[in-house]
User: Which sequence fits this backbone?
């Protein structure tokens, strides 16, 4: 009984003029099969769906990969794939050119004989862009966990505590409430370091009258959340308030106006135009957002070069920022899902400037 994801992949295989697809990417393997093991490949044709994995997963793979024929492969999985291709008479096979390195490609060429290899152009990633209801339910839970973590961490943020201590407490909370891990390396950037867009938590001790920027996420049931909030410890200066208010205005303006039918480029312009109007365009050097799901960065992006049209079911972040070297920076980030007529916001932590004393 093929699942809906396999059915979509079969359509894509046909549209790409091939007879089968070999899936080597581990995230795509899990997406298609539900199998959470760390090794194996998937082979899909118009009538067959096979998961080839090794003896370590003899029990787990058949239990998880409903609808798939599970094959325990020999010393080299590609010998087993070649055998199936010969048996089925497959003449053209899509492979994942973004995943297969040159050495593996040489092995495929050698072992697959007369079967023609064709690039898949990210066929599974394209299907993954549109989340189904079960995925959105998990992503909401992952976002809820990020929100609970934000309220939990606020009392820990004070002068004299290191960024690393904050990161540790935050990660411990997420792990103890169901996260498998963080969805990326936790950013806690205080004072001047808050001007670093990717200021991973350091040993710096948080001082007074400065920004603390937190950017973190839970990796939960195979899906990522991603949130950024910036707070002030001590008394905010006029400059702190000025750039905070501009970033907040840009972020809220975008949440109000983002809708399906816009391109990723138009989505990016929603934040960028506001920040540029206030004269800070050159201090916002990254894109407005990125797709997220099973991976922390996936298609589509909200950026100046993204032509993808935003479509219901896509999940993206909205994360404008202003970074002033030597002073500090602000970013505010939420996760949203495109709906039929607008967006639903998944992360709900407060956004008015929080001043901690
Ligand atoms: Zn983030
Ligand atoms: Zn992000």
Assistant:
């Amino acid at each position: 009984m093929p699942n809906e994801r396999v059915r979509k992949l079969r359509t894509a295989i046909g549209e790409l003029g091939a007879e089968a697809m070999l899936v080597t990417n581990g995230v795509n393997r899990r997406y298609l099969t539900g199998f959470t093991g760390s090794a194996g490949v998937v082979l899909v044709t118009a009538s067959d769906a096979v998961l080839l994995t090794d003896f370590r997963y003899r029990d787990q793979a058949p239990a998880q990969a409903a609808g798939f024929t599970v094959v325990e492969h020999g010393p080299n999985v590609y010998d087993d794939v070649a055998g199936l291709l010969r048996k089925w008479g497959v003449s053209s096979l899509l492979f994942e050119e973004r995943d297969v390195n040159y050495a593996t490609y040489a092995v495929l060429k050698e072992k697959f004989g007369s079967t023609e290899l064709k690039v898949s152009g990210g066929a599974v990633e394209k299907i993954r862009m549109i989340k189904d209801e079960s995925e959105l339910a998990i992503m909401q839970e992952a976002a809820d966990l990020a929100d609970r973590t934000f309220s939990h961490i606020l009392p820990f943020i004070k002068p004299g505590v290191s960024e690393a201590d904050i990161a540790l407490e935050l990660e411990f909370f997420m792990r103890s409430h169901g996260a498998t891990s963080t969805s990326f390396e936790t950013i806690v950037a205080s004072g001047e370091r808050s001007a670093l867009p990717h200021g991973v938590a350091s040993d710096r001790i948080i001082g007074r009258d400065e920004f603390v920027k937190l950017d973190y996420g839970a990796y939960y049931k195979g899906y990522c959340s991603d949130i950024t909030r910036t707070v002030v410890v001590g008394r905010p200066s006029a400059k702190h308030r000025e750039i905070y208010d501009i970033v907040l205005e840009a972020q809220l303006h975008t949440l109000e106006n983002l809708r399906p039918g816009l391109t990723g480029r138009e989505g990016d312009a929603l934040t960028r135009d506001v920040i540029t109007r206030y004269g800070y365009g050159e201090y916002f050097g990254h894109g407005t957002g990125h797709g997220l799901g099973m991976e922390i960065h996936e298609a589509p992006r909200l950026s100046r070069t993204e032509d993808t049209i935003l479509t219901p079911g896509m999940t993206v972040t909205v994360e404008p920022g202003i970074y002033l070297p030597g002073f500090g920076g602000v970013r505010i980030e939420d996760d949203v899902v495109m709906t039929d007529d607008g967006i639903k916001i998944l992360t709900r932590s407060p956004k008015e400037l929080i001043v901690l004393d």
